[in-house]
Each structure stands twice: as structure tokens, then as C-alpha cells.
Amino acid sequence: MAERRARTATLLMHCPDRPGVVAAVTRFLATHGANIVDLDQHVDRAEGVFFMRVRWELEGFALDAEAFEAAFRSGIADHFDAVWQLHHQDRPLRLALFVSKMSHCLYDLLSRWQSGEWRVEIPLIISNHETLRPVAQQFGIPFHCFAISPENKAEQEAAEIELLERHGIDLVVLARYMQIVGPALINAFPQRIINIHHSFLPAFAGARPYHAAHARGVKIIGATSHYVTEDLDAGPIIDQDVTRITHRDSIKALVRKGQDLEKLVLARGVWAHLQRQTLVYRNRTIVFS
């Protein structure tokens, strides 16, 4: 028998650290009938900031989203000077995948969706090349190609934004999309665009990182998933990993090992976002367990 997926809500918040925050929030939720199923917290003592994630079942909870906003703001947020966000996990999130010519991350994400591992919807794939259209067709997903040049970049990204909004996209995933995303698209989806960077940031930028790593004789290679900001490859980091290499590894071996890392690190970053485990503070990401 398939496990029943309970409808849940997740609260992410941060505020100046002080006694009584957890007690106040949990008391507020209990008063309105919440059954809390997850709670995680962290204090940054250097900054004096308290972070918390709490998830509860919606069945039996007395407040809808609008009523929660009013009651929580007046009862908790204003008192503790809290910055907060509420997410109702009562429907699958809708993902748009952006790709160029490399397929390894695309296949990995699509397999997680197709197998049911991820409860998401993928209504479209966007690319700046036609190369991966057959992959989209293989999975039955509409493929939209926007050829981009310096002259038409703003116009093409405006069309992409219109398409994303028309399809109700919640999260954009750059699955080795080899095009710098412009400010209009970033501002349309703040903290809702995840990129995979093909190195352990900030080393070896560019299109041939494994060749550069091989030439330098590095002993580890890595991958980084992060939220996209206007600072190129410098957005809040969600996940990173590395693997050891030696002088015996050829460029082909480095590419193979690196692409394995890219798939895993991107998937972990997307999964953390889907589970509402990420909370961006300044230019870093708190990732709750």
C-alpha cells in the first residue's frame, strides 16, 4: 500500500536571537491545532541570529494561509522582529529545466521525476540550442528553444519569463545551462533559480574546467549548487561535494568523475529546495536537516 502523503505547511524564519522564540512559535501553532512533524533550529552566535524551520500537518489546523499571515504577524513576527515565509506543500511544485548541450544533469533530473522519486511537475524544458530536443521528446515534455545573442538577449529572456509565468513555474533549474542569466529573469524568480557549477567554487571558471584542473594537477575536483544572483557564480551555496583524483586520471576520467558529482550535487540542492529546507540569509544558505 502506498504511503499517504499528508498535506503539510512549512514555516521558515529568522530573527534576532533571544529566549522564548521556539516556545512562542510552537505554542502559537498548538493553539490553532497544528500537529508538528519536524522542527529544526540554529543560532549563529557571531551574528546573534536565530533560524528555525517547522513543519506541521494541515489536517485539523484552524488557519488558512491568509488567516495565518495576519495572526502570525501580529502574534509572533512583530514581537520578535522576525523575517518569515510560509509554504503550503499541498501540490507538486512545477519545475522548468534550462539546458544547453550537455545531457547528464538533464537525464538525472528527469529520471527522478519519471520514477516518482520526486513529486514534481516538469511542464517544459528551455534551451538555447536544439541539441537536447530529442531527450525532451523521449520524456514527452515540450521543448522550447530560444537562441540567444547579445543583440536579442533581453527580448528572448522576456519571452522566457512570459512562458514561465504562463505555466506557473515555481522553480527554475539550470541543468548545465551555458548562458549567463540576465537580471530580469533573476528578479522574476528571486531565490527560485538553482544552478550547478562545474567546480568547487570559485576555482576553474569557464567552459573547460576539467581541462584546467588537469593542467594544474589538482588533487580534488568538486561541484557546487547555488541560488542564482546577479553576481556571477557567487549566489548563496546550497550544496557542495568533492572527489579525490590523482596524476593517473586522464581528462576523460576527470570529466566522468566531475559529471557524476554535478548530477548528485544539483539533485541534492533541488531536493533541499523542494523540501523547503533552505533559508537564505544575506549571501549564504541555511540548509536544515
UniProtKB/TrEMBL annotation:
Tree of life domain: Bacteria
Entry annotated with the keyword Hydrolase: yes
Gene3D superfamilies reported for this sequence: 3.30.70.260, Formyl transferase, N-terminal domain
Residues the record marks as active site: 233
Catalytic activity: (6R)-10-formyltetrahydrofolate + H2O = (6S)-5,6,7,8-tetrahydrofolate + formate + H(+)
Pfam families on file: ACT, Formyl_trans_N
Known EC number: 3.5.1.10
InterPro entries assigned to the protein according to its UniProt record, in alphabetical order: ACT-like_dom_sf, ACT_dom, Formyl-FH4-Hydrolase_C, Formyl_transf_N, Formyl_transf_N_sf, PurU, PurU_ACT
The keyword Hydrolase is annotated on this UniProt entry: yes
Pathways involved: Purine metabolism; IMP biosynthesis via de novo pathway; formate from 10-formyl-5,6,7,8-tetrahydrofolate: step 1/1
ACT domain sequence ranges: 10-93
Family: Belongs to the PurU family.
Protein name: Formyltetrahydrofolate deformylase
Naturally occurring in which organism (per UniProt): Spiribacter roseus
Lineage: Bacteria, Pseudomonadati, Pseudomonadota, Gammaproteobacteria, Chromatiales
Gene: purU
